[in-house]
Amino acid sequence: MRLRKIRRRKSAVVHVEVDQQCAAKDFDFDEQVIRVRRQVKKLGKHFVFALPKNDRERIVPMPAWAAQAVRVHVTKYPPRPYSLPWEKPDGKLRTVNLLFRWTDDQHIKARSYDELVWKPALVKAGVIPPPVKDNRGRKRYVTDRKSGMHALRHYYASVTLADGVNIKDLAEILGHHDPGFTLRIYAHMLPSAHERARQAIDARMFRPAGRAGRNIDGTEGYGSGDVAA
């Protein structure tokens, strides 16, 4: 079977590399960023290391709480060398010190994480109903695209846009080639232009004055006809 005909499945988990002394290479604590350099991709029955989404590396801002969580994790679970071929099953082996591993000490497999961690968490949070057993006694969860792990990516985008991150920067963080593509996906999540305009004017100009030169909310203000110097 030709490689291009092999069904491809990308792992939802990005792996990061740290050196033997646990000084971050992918986690840059000084710059407070995560350097996304690789992912695990499934080609047929084989797993390989490959470039991240859209075949490009990217840099993601790292909040302080995440940095602290990584430090704690590294202390409790020191990274270990792990090797996979690069890009194709017969590709050259690449070894990284894997930080996040599954219970079998190998890389985290997206399907296992989805069934054993993600979906049970959604049930506990009341997002999806508890699983039901099929005619073979296997647990089955009722889910849709909106409740998949990819929803975390959309949540990240919506939160950052709401707090003022621009489309160009968000496109780079998400690994999109074209900011226009990012805009088409997330335009509906952008803050209202009317609301932002009101906030901008409120922040820079005086409020309507009430009696005795005081603002309507009771604070000191300008009298009728006065203009801020």
Strand order of the largest sheet: 1-4-5
The domain tally reads: 3
Number of DSSP E strands? 10
Profile the largest sheet: 3 strands, antiparallel
SSE string: EEEEEEHEEHEEHHHH
GO molecular function, one term: DNA binding
Pfam families: Phage_integrase
Protein name: Integrase
Organism: Saccharopolyspora hordei
Notes on the structure:
This protein has six helices and ten strands. By secondary structure, the protein is an alpha+beta fold. The protein has three domains: 7-108, no CATH class; 109-143, no CATH class; 150-207, no CATH class. The strands form four sheets. The chain has a three-stranded antiparallel beta sheet with strand order 1-4-5, with no helix packed on it. The chain is globular, with a radius of gyration of 25 Å. The termini are far apart. This is Integrase. One of its GO terms (molecular function) is DNA binding. Keywords: DNA recombination. Residues 1-202 form the Tyr recombinase domain.
What features would you highlight for this structure?
DNA_brk_join_enz, Integrase-like_cat_sf, three-stranded antiparallel β-sheet, disordered N terminus, 17% strand, Integrase, Integrase_catalytic, 3 domains, alpha+beta, 229 residues
List the helices and strands and how they pair.
Layout: E1 8-10, E2 27-28, E3 33-36, E4 39-43, E5 46-50, E6 58-61, H1 64-76, E7 80-85, E8 93-98, H2 110-124, E9 132-133, E10 139-140, H3 151-162, H4 167-174, H5 179-186, H6 193-204
Concise description?
The chain is α+β, with helices and mostly antiparallel strands and 229 residues long.
